[in-house]
Write a structure and sequence with these properties.
Elements: E1 2-8, H1 9-19, H2 34-48, E2 61-65, H3 75-79, H4 95-108, E3 112-113, H5 120-129, E4 135-140, E5 155-159, E6 164-166, H6 168-175, H7 179-189, H8 204-214, H9 217-225, H10 237-246, H11 250-257, H12 282-289, H13 292-306, H14 318-330, E7 341-344, H15 348-360, E8 364-370, E9 380-386, E10 391-396, H16 408-419, E11 426-428, H17 431-440, E12 454-455, H18 456-463, H19 472-480, H20 488-491, H21 505-532, H22 536-556, E13 558-560, H23 562-591, H24 600-608, H25 634-642, H26 650-673, E14 681-682, E15 685-687, E16 697-699, H27 711-717, E17 720-721, H28 736-745, H29 748-755, H30 760-769, H31 778-790, H32 797-804, H33 808-821, H34 823-839, E18 841-843, E19 849-851, H35 860-895
Helix pairs in contact: 1-2, 2-4, 2-13, 7-8, 7-11, 9-10, 12-13, 13-14, 15-16, 17-22, 18-21, 19-21, 22-35, 23-26, 25-26, 28-34, 28-35, 29-30, 30-31, 30-33, 32-33, 33-34, 34-35
Length: 896
């Protein structure tokens, strides 16, 4: 039997939108993509034929049913003006994502069916009415209204997210009614979301029971209206009264929930054939949206669908085969036509020609190819250069054809004077990486601080810090409309991945030279944009010099005592075992059973299940609900630990257990693994283009997350040591963000407190509570400290109350008093928000910009988040600028 999968379009759009609430944006277009990502994932899952979708050989046909008239433009709203009248407007970032989904469906040829004056459910009913005898329709939805269409071997509902099929038999098992009775059930229960009137107190379960017992809605109404003795009533009490009172509205409700199979539609089943889809047309869309993980899925689906049919002699669909070939030709560096004039330098004569060209060039784009992602572990494989757009040179020093190129010493000796020439501007993408690789090869990359030098990754970050990716491929596609050769086409992925020195020279040349060429073209676009936005000075005086400083940090690394790490790990693992034992003993004493300490689900049951439940628990009041139960995250455990009414030690013990386990697994184990085999140091990466505020981050490993205020964190830091005869010097600013807040807000009270050298938190507490400095209590100082650190993040009374353990009213009084006593700060915060509203961005003291996109959003949460972002971006961003400036200046002092 052939299967038509009919997707309930807007139901899937909304489900995808609400399933993925983490903000996502395209690295190319900047558009929001969380809905689109979820919908495309659903579509690919369907096309792969996973689970029940793989029955009957997988989907044979596919189409999408749509609402094309909106909530208020259907026959139902004409019949009943209140129908869907109370629905909220859709989120602001939803409509454009729906349009994107519709455009990609059109691009690959999935038919979208709608009917003016009718809803998608009516369209589905109309398609079902035209079903061919040998066809099974599976509606991709779990909408209760669609259950009235269920028919054995003809129509089913399919929840693709849970792989559950709902048919007439399962409907009967769950509710005791038939599809024909669903309409009467829906009429009885009504629908608050769609504003369909129903009977108060009658929900789905009761409605199904009534319809199952009496057969029809009419029979239910007749029962409550029958004039017979009370002892003969089959429906009694308040339920009878409610049904009788609302009986006159139930025929209207039944009409509103009845799907109209006579909706006029244009439906051609032959256009729904999956084999006719142009799936290759989806690949450039996936690239544009930044959906990297879906690109391999799409290739696998196309391979699967073509199979042996890819042979021209056996092909049953030439168009699909052509698309298949086009797709893989476009993704293959070997077959793809390179858009540029690229040369491989193999001889001394060719190297001399390159040196002559580089010597005459005003600026040089440079890139390195290596054997590893981490520069301190990488060997140089080759260098590429570009001096004019559309051209490029690749100079290999390692390749499979070793006899066909020059050796590393010859190449570097010839190129060193140019690479090390500080007067020659250098252009690159992530120049820090190239600087470290070349340093390891004995060459010092110079010229980065020249006014015309440019790191295009850093430039992209300054121009738009909110861009989700500053990668060369994303920028090339976004700004040049060009798809670069994917590195995976040359070296593969996963376990089969090779190193670049195994790539044949002809393919390596096109890839490497293209990178230098594209980088040069991007720089030509970005440098005028930096000047236009007033960012050129920030780029040349701070960010480009910082590239060299960070490279120096990574090259030097930091010495680590592995024996100290080992001792600490052994000590903490002993304590972790003790805590695990204490937790189990406490659970056995309290509820008579143990549990898996590392299982959040089992911990949730222990904490929140009632003592007489199965399994039994402590019966504590849950604090935060999740999609699968009740949360046991650190915030919840901390709150339970602080609750004086709870005498169980389990929350506090688990909190300690998790913290120590994280320290062991995240740091003490991985730090040892990260020690460089040659230098015996850890060489972490310092990232310049990650945090939107301008702050630096670290990775591989993340040294910034080692706790500093706990005894255990301080112990871990003892493992970082200075070489013999040297010392480690730590330099930092004191309360830098608060000092900048005083400067930026020009608030006299805060400035005066700093100028007098007072304990700033005590001074603020004295102002808030109108008491003498010496009379400030510890609790008052804690509250002031919390407000001081939270004010630039938009701390709320609820948030402050939770942190201080006070009532919302007390927290409100503290914040209100703060704002009165430090009016300059309040004015400054309002100015930040207003600047973002009028400009669409905010700036730091050094003119670093951050786009603020939701400052006028209808959604209060999104608007509030944007306002907080506007404030903290100015203060935190200015602090980041100041710290970076200090790093650059200190390095210059060291070098002097």
């Amino acid at each position: 039997m052939r299967t038509l999968y009919l997707i309930d379009g807007y139901a899937q759009f909304f489900r995808a939108y609400h399933a993925i609430r983490t903000p996502m944006t395209s690295p190319v277009t900047g558009e929001p993509t969380n809905l689109t990502f979820g919908f495309v994932g659903m579509l690919l899952k369907l096309l792969r034929g996973e689970g029940h979708a793989g029955e009957h050989g997988g989907p044979h046909s596919i189409a999408v049913a749509l609402d094309v008239s909106g909530d208020r433009g259907t026959f139902r709203s004409q019949l009943y003006p209140e129908y869907k009248a109370t629905r909220d407007a859709p989120p602001e970032d939803l409509p454009q994502q729906v349009e994107r989904c519709l455009s990609l469906l059109k691009a690959i040829g999935v038919p979208c069916i709608g009917s003016e004056g009718f809803e998608a459910d009516d369209v589905i009913a109309a398609v079902a009415a035209q079903r061919a005898d040998d066809q099974l329709i599976r509606v991709v939805s779990k909408d209760k209204d669609l259950k009235q269409l269920l028919k054995p071997d003809a129509l089913e509902l399919y929840d693709i997210h849970t792989d559950v099929v709902i048919d007439a038999a399962s409907l009967a098992d769950d509710t005791g009614i038939t599809p024909e009775q669903v309409v009467d059930m829906l009429a009885l229960m009504g629908d608050n979301v769609d504003n369909v009137p129903g009977v108060p107190g009658v929900g789905p379960k009761t409605a199904a029971q009534l319809v199952a017992e009496f057969g029809t809605l009419d029979a239910v109404i007749a029962e409550v209206q029958a004039d017979k003795p009370k002892k003969d009533w089959k429906i009694k009490g308040k339920r009878r009264e409610n049904i009788a009172a609302f009986a006159d509205k139930l025929p209207l409700s039944r009409e509103l929930v009845t799907l109209r199979a006579d909706a006029p539609i244009e439906f051609d089943a032959s256009r729904c054939d999956v084999d006719a889809l142009n799936l290759a047309a989806l690949m450039p869309i996936l690239r544009e949206l930044g959906f990297n993980r879906y690109q391999d899925d799409l290739k696998d689906i196309i391979k699967q669908r073509n199979g042996s049919d890819n042979d021209a002699d056996n092909s049953t669909n030439a168009d699909t085969d052509d698309a298949f070939g086009t797709l893989f030709a476009a993704d293959s560096g070997a077959e793809r036509k390179v858009d540029g004039s690229y040369r491989c330098v193999r001889t001394k004569s060719e190297l001399d020609d390159l040196v002559a060209e580089l010597t005459q060039a005003e600026a040089i784009a440079i890139d390195t190819e290596t054997t590893a992602i981490r520069p301190m572990l990488a060997e140089l494989v080759g260098l590429s250069f570009s001096t004019e757009p559309g051209t490029g040179w690749y100079v290999p020093v390692r390749a499979p054809e070793g006899e066909m190129h020059l050796d590393e010493t010859t190449v570097l000796d010839a190129l060193r004077p140019i690479i090390e020439d500080a007067a020659k501007p250098k252009i690159g993408h992530n120049l820090k990486y190239d600087l470290i690789v070349l340093h390891r090869a004995g060459v010092q990359l110079s010229g980065l601080e020249h006014a015309e030098s440019c790191d295009t990754m850093v430039a992209s970050y300054l121009i738009d810090a909110s861009r989700s990716s500053h990668s060369l491929d994303a920028l090339s596609l976004a700004l040049l409309g060009r798809t670069n050769i994917p590195i995976s086409d040359l070296i593969g992925k996963g376990k089969s991945q090779r190193t670049f020195d195994t790539v044949p020279l002809d393919r390596a040349t096109d890839y490497a030279a293209e990178d230098a060429d594209v980088t040069l073209q991007l720089a030509r676009l970005m440098q005028p944009e930096l000047r236009a936005q007033g960012l050129h000075e920030l780029m040349t005086t701070l960010e480009m010099p910082l590239v060299g400083v960070l490279a120096e940090l990574e090259i030097n690394g930091i010495l680590v005592d592995p024996d100290e790490l080992s001792r600490q790990r052994e000590r903490l693992e002993t304590r972790i075992a003790e805590l695990r034992s204490e937790i189990q003993d406490s659970a056995l004493d309290a509820i008579g059973r143990g549990f898996d300490t590392d299982s959040p689900k089992q911990l949730s049951e222990v904490l929140f299940n009632k003592p007489d439940a199965e399994p039994p628990g402590l019966g504590l009041k849950p604090i935060k609900k999740t999609t699968t139960g009740y949360s046991t995250d650190a915030e919840v455990l901390d709150k339970l630990t602080q609750d004086p009414t709870i005498d169980s030690p389990i929350p506090g013990l688990v909190l300690d257990y998790r913290q120590l386990a994280k320290l062991v697994n995240t740091y003490l184990a991985s730090l040892t693994d990260d020690i460089h085999p040659e230098t015996k140091r850890i060489h972490a990466s310092f990232n310049q283009t990650v945090a939107a505020t301008g702050r630096l981050s670290s990775s591989d490993p993340n040294l910034q997350n080692i706790p500093i205020r706990t005894d255990v964190g301080r112990e871990i830091r003892r493992a970082f040591v200075a070489p013999e005869g040297r010392v480690l010097i730590s330099a930092d600013y004191s309360q830098i963000e608060l000092r900048l807040l005083a400067h930026l807000s020009r608030d006299p009270a805060l400035i005066e407190a700093f100028q007098r050298g007072e304990d700033i938190h005590r001074a603020v507490a004295a102002q808030i509570h109108s008491v003498a400095l010496d009379d400030v209590t510890r609790e008052q100082r804690s509250g002031a400290k919390m407000v001081n650190f939270g004010i630039v993040y938009g701390i709320t009374p609820f948030g402050l109350a939770r942190r201080l353990g006070v009532s919302n009213g007390e927290a409100t009084d503290i914040i209100d008093s703060y704002k009165r006593k430090f009016a300059g700060i309040t004015t400054f915060l309002e100015e930040c928000v207003e600047y973002a509203r009028s400009h669409g961005y905010v700036e730091t003291m050094m003119k670093r910009r951050r786009p603020i996109t939701d400052i006028d959003a209808r959604n209060p949460q999104r608007k509030s988040l944007a306002e907080r972002m506007a404030i903290n971006s100015v203060v935190q961003g200015s602090a980041a600028d100041l710290i970076k400036l200090a790093m650059v200046n200190i390095q210059r002092e060291i070098d002097a």
